[in-house]
Amino acid sequence: MKKEDSGKSTESMKHVELWFLFAMMIIIAVTVFALTNASPVPVRFLIWTRELSLALLIFLSAAVGAVIAILLGFIKQMRNRKKYKIREKHMAEVEKENTSLKTQLVELEAKLKEALKEKSQQPASGQKAGDQTKPGLSPDDWADEPPQDDLPDFLNSKSSD
Predict the structure, then answer these.
(1) Torsion of CA 101, 106, 111, 112, to 10 degrees
(2) Do 51 and 64 form a contact (C-beta atoms < 8 A)?
(3) pTM as predicted
(4) Fewest 10 Å CB contacts: which of 27, 98, 105, 149?
(5) How far apart are CA 58 and CA 27, in angstroms?
(6) Hey, how many other C-beta atoms are within 10 angstroms of the C-beta on 16?
(7) Which H or E run contains 45?
(8) Of 27, 31, 29, 57, nearest to 42 (Cα)?
(9) Do residues 102 and 93 make contact, with C-beta atoms less than 8 angstroms apart?
(10) Quick one: residue 123, left, alpha or beta (phi over 0 = left, psi -120 to 50 = alpha)?
């Protein structure tokens, strides 16, 4: 584990500890509130009427709220996990394509160097085979990019990408 990772881990643990302390304080406050209000109260739901202890009603309400919050968090976590797997799969495809393109680039550069070497070794038109007054440029002689007239046809075409 790197030092940077351990710092983030410690920070996230402090975050979890703070949430745990906050949750414990809420639970204690709800318990104290419920126990101080323990008298029976009538509870009506649609056609159902019942008399329950207010403490029990408070605990049931808090428990139902906690279950709903946990379920919503679980659903969100499952969606995030699904998105993560899709993105991870896409990233693997992009890396594979990147590797393929790098291989193609190396091959094309080798073809270009070979074509330029062949062109520099051929006598210019109007010259004899042994008379080379103007040798071709090698890739080392290029300033920023190769002269366009020395490139093979497949590299001279401009794409609109």
Answers:
(1) 100
(2) no
(3) 0.47
(4) 149
(5) 11
(6) 9
(7) strand 40-45
(8) 57
(9) no
(10) beta
